Amino acid sequence: MAMRFRICLKTYDHEVLDRSAHSIADTIKKTGATISGPVPLPTEISRYCVIRAPHVNKDSRDQYEIRVHKRLIDVYNSNQDTISELKNLELPSGLKVEIKQF
To answer: CB-based contacts of 72: which residues, under 8 Å, 6+ apart?
Structure first.
């Protein structure tokens, strides 16, 4: 029975994300499944402005931003070997992996 599922990867570090996406893609290709991706999704940027001192230096502020990088991999024609190989794959910490069946 062929299964179709989507893997969404998110992290703050784009280099870790690219290495992980390519290792996942290579693992899936070895099992004979068909993939689409890794597709880069738009980067989420959250900006924050923080007041340094609440009274005297109210105009003095620090600015920070957080960037969340994302990749998407669609897997078609997968089998039980694909799933078992993905379970055995070592991924770095700080990488959020979401798997959805469609």
So the answer is: 6, 7, 8, 9, 37, 38, 39, 41
